[in-house]
Specification:
95 residues, mainly alpha, 60% helix, Nif11, CHP03798_Ocin, Nif11 domain-containing protein
């Protein structure tokens, strides 16, 4: 078991559209572990997660944290009060 096995699975998916789709649709590490095992790739969940973090990958079912959800729903975040900015948006211009 190793991180190299995770990388080899990812590389195999680059030339196999079916495998790539399965990995893209994976709902969590257990699914990826099963997909990898079916194809002879042996790695642990910790190794999978480490490679995913290094390559900035995520699972299809990755959910927002409670804080992220509240920020979206509650409208938290940077507020823009510049009227010129609003006018630019209205006319499709970028600040």
């Amino acid at each position: 078991m190793s991180k190299e096995s995770v990388i080899k699975l990812i590389e195999a998916a680059e030339s196999n559209p079916t495998l790539l789709k399965q990995l893209h649709n994976a709902q969590g590490p257990e699914t990826v572990l099963a997909i990898g095992a079916e194809r002879g790739f042996q790695f642990s969940e910790a190794e999978l997660v480490a490679v995913m973090q290094e390559k900035q990958l995520s699972f299809a079912s990755q959910e927002l944290s409670q804080e992220q959800l509240e920020a979206v729903v509650g409208g938290k975040g940077k507020k823009t009060t510049n009227n010129d900015y609003s006018k630019n948006i209205q006319y499709g211009l970028q600040p």
